[in-house]
Amino acid sequence: MAGKGANSSATVSTCTVTLGKEEGSKKRPAWVSLIRKTKTLENGTLRVFLVAKVVVNGEMIEYYDISGCYILRPWAMSIWEIMQTFFDAEIKKMKIKNCYFPLFVSSGVLQKEKDHIEGFAPEVAWVTKSGESELEMPIAIRPTSETVMYPYFSKWIRGHRDLPLRLNQWCNVVRWEFSNPTPFIRSREFLWQEGHTAFATKEEADTEVLEILELYRRIYEEFLAVPVIKGKKSEHEKFAGGLYTTTVEAFVPNTGRGVQGATSHCLGQNFAKMFEINFENEKGEKCMVWQNSWAYTTRTIGVMVMVHGDDKGLVLPPKVASVQVIVIPVPYKDANTQGIFDACAATVKTLNEAGFRAEADYRDNYSPGWKYSHWEMKGVPLRIEIGPKDLANNQVRAVRRDNSAKSDIQMASLVEGVKEMLDNVQQSLFDAAKQKRDACIQVVNTWEEFAEALGQKKMILAPWCDEEEVEKDVKARTKGEMGAAKSLCTPFDQPELPEGTLCFASGTPAKKWTYWGRSY
Ligand code: 87F
Predict the structure, then answer these.
(1) Which GO terms describe its biological process (predicted)?
(2) Which residue has the higher pLDDT, 134 or 17?
(3) Which of 103, 120, 171, 212 to mutate to test the pocket of ligand 1 (most atoms within 8 A of CB)?
(4) How far is CA 245 from the centre of its chain?
């Protein structure tokens, strides 16, 4: 319904869409190339622009004629699918079942839980017309599915034998953001999984919150090679409709910003009360269920791009790369070209049979050098070059994307050699990212130290009194061009807090160590 030139039969009209710079343009916006010259932007904007450039050149994203909406090309979608395959299998082991609820929400249902929706209302997109006629009642497009699903939870849950009810759906959601859109990081439509579960006891809900959070950690650390910190959101930053929010927090050293990587909420009984989700326990008493909800989105891909990308473009961790090894023939005029091509084909075949995602680039209208930069831009973890010398020596030359290290691998030990190199790339991407992230962590005790560290784009660990008013005050005192600082999370892994430690912001006794910083 959104396509330009398509015969739209419905429009999203209550949102007055402010035209972003790229609105209306089908081509890559001019500013994408302009930014090469813009070296002086300090406030993180440059990095955001660079991400845009890197994902377009790397063929992950294509711009679309609606601001804030992006085309996910196969190069990006395959990463999403690899994470999806992992997560989907894991939640199935936990007896969570997939389902699909409608995209549209009636306004009555959406507004049923007023408190929760209130702050989000400006971001809700509405369908108001079909063809030329106004709809009798505008219909919202889901920004999240609590209000869509919970009336049916109420219907389906009767007795304790109906519990737990554990559902997940893979879908798209729409949030009509107004601040500068960025591919993956801030888009108006994105893909996610949303899990919604109901239990008889709080203990069961608490356990699941952490099990899901651990899966999110694994997606970031084991697949995307991005280190994250597990922790709890402050009262101010938690999902207002819930009891508590846990998070995996990533950090982007180049911009000095934290990113909420994924969240796992315990909703407590707030929604159960609102939607009357009750059950009869073994004793025949009427009880309210305990609920959780949890999600990760395509933002994960954006975080990975920002953390690993370099001057040459994307750098993909082998575990999520749809092409892990690109094989490039390097023929010379007088060399045995057919022999080289055959060796490339044999290499791809051997690697594919061993379970690696390998491809060869045989195009004869591009030089080997052009191909090297092309596949570097796309972030392929390992390049294999086969030239006349390699052919003669029964070997291949392998070049790592992350550090350009080269090594010759004998054809006879191709599989072992490639496996070792890919494992090393995966591990060193994580190690390098962790080292860089850790170097950005600054422990502070006073406001002065805090302000200085914030100026240096650090991720700040500070003793805090855990008062909401103090957090609001920190936000107010750090307001500026680059955005205010806020609490990122209180890590589960707490350093020792010596007796008598004072809050960095209020000077009253501190209760916990909390991470602070600017964030996306
Ligand atoms: C935007 C518009 C309307 C976030 C919104 O985190 C409503 C909302 O409820 C909204 N943006 N949220 C919070 C979403 C909470 C929760 N939903 C299920 C999750 C995990 C998955």
Answers:
(1) prolyl-tRNA aminoacylation
(2) 134
(3) 120
(4) 17
